[in-house]
Amino acid sequence: MSDIDSVGQRWLAKAERFLDTARNCRRDGDLDGCVSRAQYAILHTILALVPEVRPYHSYTGIADYFSGHWTTEHSEFKDVGTLDNERNLYHSLMKLRDWREDADYKLGETVEVRADNALSFTSRFIEKAKEQSR
Prior knowledge:
The protein is mostly helical. It has a single domain, classed as Up-down Bundle (Four Helix Bundle (Hemerythrin (Met), subunit A)), CATH 1.20.120.330. The protein is 71% helix and 0% strand. It is globular. The termini are close together.
């Protein structure tokens, strides 16, 4: 993977801030906020890594890109693992989006295990992105 460009570096910095916010939310017992910020941290990491998806600016728009070649061409992300025993990275990203929608729009949907899994998955994903950009 090539170096992250200057715009990508700014997206990655934003992703790290969102991950920090997710951790703070978890620490403070805000499980919904934790999952929501974790999902947006992933989105910003993807925007850092894949310049061609930046115009989409939506998780769903980017999902189409991820359902195809990116996750197979960039096998280095396979060791990130999956979220909640999903089949692959694409399905993990979609599950995190679903969890974020539940957290944002429903009452009482987020449980501790979801918040913990979202944080763990997002942390691994961002660390892998930083590793690949060095």
